[in-house]
Amino acid sequence: MRSRRRRKQISIAKMAEEQQESSQGEMEGVNCLAYDEAIIAQQDRIQQEIANSNPLVSDRQDLSVLQREYAEDDTVYQLKLKDLYKKYAYIRKTRPDGNCFYRAFGFAHLESLLDDSKELQKFKAVAAKSKLDLVSEGFTEFTIEDFHNTFMDLIELCEKHPRLQELLNSFNDQNMSDYVVVYLRLLTSGYLQREHGFFEHFIEGGRTIKEFCQQEVEPMSKESDHIHIIALAKALNVSILVEYMDRGEGGSVNNHIFPEGGDPRIFLLYRPGHYDILYK
Amino acid sequence: MENKYNLKSPAVKRLMKEAAELRDPTEHYHAQPLDDNLFEWHFSVRGPPDSDFDGGVYHGRIVLPPEYPMKPPSIILLTPTGRFEVGKKICLSISGHHPETWQPSWSIRTALIAIIGFMPTKGEGAIGSLDYTPEERKALAKKSQDFCCEACGCSMRSALLPLTSNSNPSAEDRQAKELAQQIKFKAESSIIPQASTSGSKASTVTKGETSSSSEQQAEERPQAEQAEASPAADPEELQAPNDSGPVRRLSPRQRRAQQLSRQAPRTGREPVASRALFGPAPRRDNHAASAVLIVVLTLALAALIFRRIYLANEYKFNYDL
């Protein structure tokens, strides 16, 4: 008898739940559109705030500016900072908008080519050919050519031996800077897809390389991981050194060269979720 | 148009290029900017031939943000399809509702092909989505050709190239279709978390309409939800064969419309006219049935508890009064 009673109680509870659920559903119908737009608006506000306080690419600053960012009794970071001072003297910060790796890489590499016209010509040839590779991989030419042209314009600007400030201005022009980021993302995506046999072993979540590129590489503001860095470094035949500064024990910053065994010309500082540029 | 816009703006440059690229209508789609505004386009798309939308040519607007192509376009249908709401922004991964998945290398053409590719998929309660019956959709498809747009002067009868029987899609079209398929896949996976709640609720309501017994409803619900979750499930399978009114899964807005219309007199029974007016009675029955059931069960419980107390304490009641 008791079990029968319980069953009845449960069925009553279930019905009450269902009624509640359906009225909730109606509320959602009314609100979800406004809700969606409110979320988008809030994200925009946050992005705007970040934009107002951080230039896309900053001036070169003394590395000691980092000291202020960490508490004095934060021994892990203070030790690592000391280690970093031994190797580097300056830092150039990038805006933390999810595109920092591409922007830091783009700027640091072109800056390093300003006074090396031989390397610049080599790089220009690689960059010029890269669009054809993308088109032959199935990217639509008329949509990617604007991005490619902007990238080539910047390389041509470097050929004219401009003052550093000119390059910096270009990278702080939102339109131009973002177009360069888009093109670097396309190059990364193109390389990952070309070498999918190798890279698909590193993809999490059972996705194909194509899906990974559609979700994590090509959309703006998607952050970069090892796999993106390796692909871009190989796609442009450029060697990148990344110093990793995180909360791990050990008191020293670890670095990694992409691709392994290269002779890096550009140095990036990685702190969880963000890349800046380092100078010796 | 050329001197009205700043040609240095990347959006203007890109949109001019796209306008030139899309100047001539194809068999399946056509889109051009309005004469006085490069940032608002009107488009026409043909319903996929092997679907309920066969024979339909639908018209809509595309609104481009000033940041285009860094930010996605918004897409709004102007003629009824039975798949997308009229006058409301469509929620595709390619549209303004999902700025986080938009890719700057996509274009208006990608968006048009995505819309066509999306029509036969299920709405599943996503924003701006509708799940009309095949009959309604076919009727709307037939009607759609009569539309003439006052803003852009397009007539749906002549907006697109006529379909040829042995149309060989060009390499470009194939490429774009492939792209649209990726988009479709992605949009589905990104819509599901959002749709799963409202989708299952929709199924509860619909089930309530088909089966008058609420116990049966409770038993059937898990299976119904499973059927909805599986992509292969045919919407027609969910219809009760003997039911007089059309049964379908509804968008939240339709459900509201339906509830509002409960007071309205029942008039037209033909599929299109009865869109918002069908089946008000079963829903009310269901409410009454659950109320009665609650009362009966409460009474039964009270009686049982009363008897237990009576047995335990061996109270004597004076029945003769």
TrEMBL record, chain A:
Catalytic-site annotation from UniProt: 97, 100 (nucleophile), 274
Record EC number: 3.4.19.12
Site (Interacts with free ubiquitin): 230, 244, 246, 270, 275
Pfam families listed in its UniProt record: Peptidase_C65 (PF10275)
GO biological process: negative regulation of double-strand break repair; protein K48-linked deubiquitination; proteolysis
GO cellular component, one term: nucleus
Gene3D superfamilies for this protein: Peptidase C65 Otubain, subdomain 1 (3.30.200.60), Peptidase C65 Otubain, subdomain 2 (1.20.1300.20)
Presence of the UniProt keyword Protease in the record: yes
Region annotation Disordered: where it falls in the sequence: 1-26
Keywords recorded for this protein, A-Z: Hydrolase, Protease, Thiol protease, Ubl conjugation pathway
Domain of life: Eukaryota
Catalytic activity: Thiol-dependent hydrolysis of ester, thioester, amide, peptide and isopeptide bonds formed by the C-terminal Gly of ubiquitin (a 76-residue protein attached to proteins as an intracellular targeting signal)
Molecular functions per Gene Ontology: cysteine-type deubiquitinase activity; ubiquitin binding
Domain OTU: start-end pairs: 89-280
Family: Belongs to the peptidase C65 family.
Protein name: Ubiquitin thioesterase
Naturally occurring in which organism (per UniProt): Xiphophorus maculatus
From TrEMBL, chain B:
Membrane topology of the entry: Single-pass type IV membrane protein
Regions that span the bilayer: 288-306
Name of the protein described by the UniProt record: Ubiquitin-conjugating enzyme E2 J1
A Pfam family it matches: UQ_con
Subcellular location: Endoplasmic reticulum membrane
Location of the UBC core domain: 10-160
Alphabetical list of PANTHER family matching this protein: UBIQUITIN-CONJUGATING ENZYME E2 (PTHR24067)
Record-linked PROSITE patterns: UBC_2
Record has Protease as a keyword: no
Main location: endoplasmic reticulum
Biological-process GO terms, alphabetical: ERAD pathway
Biased composition (Polar residues): 191-210
